[in-house]
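Morning run. Coffee first, then this:
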Amino acid sequence: MPSSCLTRAVTHLRVAHLGLRDMEASDQDRVLLGFFGVAVFGRSVTLALQHLKTWDEPAFLAWYEPWVAQMRQDPLCRFFYELRTDILHDVVPMVGVVLGAWGQNALRPGSVTVLDRPVPTEHRGKPIDDTSTSNLCRLYLAYLDELVESSHALVWQIQDAWQAGHA
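And here it is:
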């Protein structure tokens, strides 16, 4: 049923938000798990929504293609897409958890750092001033919140048409 795509997307998004909350914990394992959770379940949001094309591909593509074009060009979205791919399919990326820090621009102890790739410095055509992993996660999840919110009208349009055909 088409509405199940939205249910799955919202569930994945909630789990990704829990990952961000875990990143604020003091337990290093939860911080790392939270960061990986944002990457993996954040990407799962878009995968769940892509199942809508099963019921109405033209309507789905009309809504989704502008989002895909934006995500492909966006350094922040690419960062999380590639991170998720590496976590699940390739070599787990090199990450570290800051145990202690000193100085004006030092990372907060407990922060996650990605050691084997540059962090994005731009999102939606604007510079990212705070490139800490927790802020990158916040920006990514805000983007996904907007994506899911924008899908609601489409989902219910497809759901109504599907139900009318099965009545």
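Residues 53 and 60 are 5 Å apart (CA to CA). Good start to the day.
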